[in-house]
Amino acid sequence: MSAYQSGSQPVQRVGVIGGGQLAWMMAGAAKKLGVQLVVQTPHDTDPAVAIAADAILAAVADANATGELATRCEVITFENEFVDLEALAQLEAQGIRFRPRLTTLVPLLDKYHQRSYLRDLGLPTPEFVALEHQIDDTALEQLGFPLVLKARRHGYDGQGTFIIHDQAELEDIWQKLDRSPVLLEAFVPFERELAVIAARGTSGEVAVYPVVETQQENQVCRRVLAPADIPESVQAEAEAIARTLLNSLQAIGVFGIELFLTADGKVLVNEIAPRTHNSGHFSLDACATSQFEQHLRAVCGLALGNPSLSSDGAVMVNLLGYEQSHSDYLEKRQQIEKIPQAHVHWYGKTESRPGRKLGHVTVLLSAQTAPREQALAIAQEVEAIWYQR
């Protein structure tokens, strides 16, 4: 059996390009579904290597390694977007199965192309322009200051994203980026940031998770509140956006969709992640079907599971590095685990550095503690333990 074979046999092995915590968190779902994971990842210390049935130690953009990966599994999926689509297309032409398909990824990996695709679909986004050769004063007048500058490829967890306050700062930051093509977009004075996880199966069915509120600091997600305290109309609009997008892309698998909610109730699409997403980690403990099981169900050609909450609500807090160290922070994790209904997920990384995602904790909420204020109080309790020096 290999990814070259495309018959109707049940999938027994799934190849995953990338071996970080997202692949690692697929382990429980893989066991439940009777599926083995084979990962392509650079280092034997990467989290998913410990849970994989097999591993190929190579860069995620190494298409030759992906060709070898294809001989060890029936279908290949992605943990991240840092891939060489042109090289992978040669493999796909040979019959190797990728889910999502490469044609699904093409309009998404470059942020300017992604914005253009959303606009052409009629989905609401902030105003944007491409900055490629020289600064266009007319475009700057259209966007105004402050504005947001984003690297078009390979930005994540706030990397490659800058808030620009004037033209001098724009010139300076762009020069530091070697004047490479970037995306400029209008700064949105949002009321809240939202996200929605959605999955599409091989049959075309779509499952949408409850919309959540995400809270960022230094453009890195710190906490997620599920469900978001929003009107039903906003939930419905976010779900409609997800369905429109996934059906248009003919997507297979889980996608994370980041949204802005403005003060006047408008929903704008911020970014699309064609994979499992940090905003959906709460689903491991708080939903009937986690986003990781859902993703494997989709790529294996199985029926999608129930995305509904199995508790009244949940708050997820990322455990971010705040120092340079080699520590497993066991004592702090044990303190957090004493919080009622707390579920700590530690990714097994051996090195901590500021901003690095080392783990997360999800605390399930009862009807008595579901209001947003209580969720935030629990998040603050977790963070007081975690960040105490």
Automatic annotation (TrEMBL):
Enzyme class: ligase
This enzyme's EC code(s): 6.3.4.18
Catalysis: reaction(s): 5-amino-1-(5-phospho-beta-D-ribosyl)imidazole + hydrogencarbonate + ATP = 5-carboxyamino-1-(5-phospho-D-ribosyl)imidazole + ADP + phosphate + 2 H(+)
Molecular function per GO: 5-(carboxyamino)imidazole ribonucleotide synthase activity
Domain ATP-grasp span(s) in chain numbering: 115-300
Domain of life: Bacteria
Transmembrane segments: none
InterPro entries: ATP-grasp (IPR011761), ATP-grasp_carboxylate-amine (IPR003135), ATP_grasp_subdomain_1 (IPR013815), PreATP-grasp_dom_sf (IPR016185), PurK (IPR005875), PurK_C (IPR040686), PurT/PurK_preATP-grasp (IPR054350), Rudment_hybrid_motif (IPR011054)
Any Pfam family hit: ATP-grasp
Amino-acid positions noted as binding ATP in the UniProt annotation, renumbered to this chain: 111, 150, 185-188, 193, 270-271
Keywords, comma-separated and alphabetical: ATP-binding, Ligase, Nucleotide-binding, Purine biosynthesis
Function statement: Catalyzes the ATP-dependent conversion of 5-aminoimidazole ribonucleotide (AIR) and HCO(3)(-) to N5-carboxyaminoimidazole ribonucleotide (N5-CAIR).
Similarity section: Belongs to the PurK/PurT family.
Subunit annotation: Homodimer.
Protein name (database record): N5-carboxyaminoimidazole ribonucleotide synthase
Name of the gene this protein is made from: purK
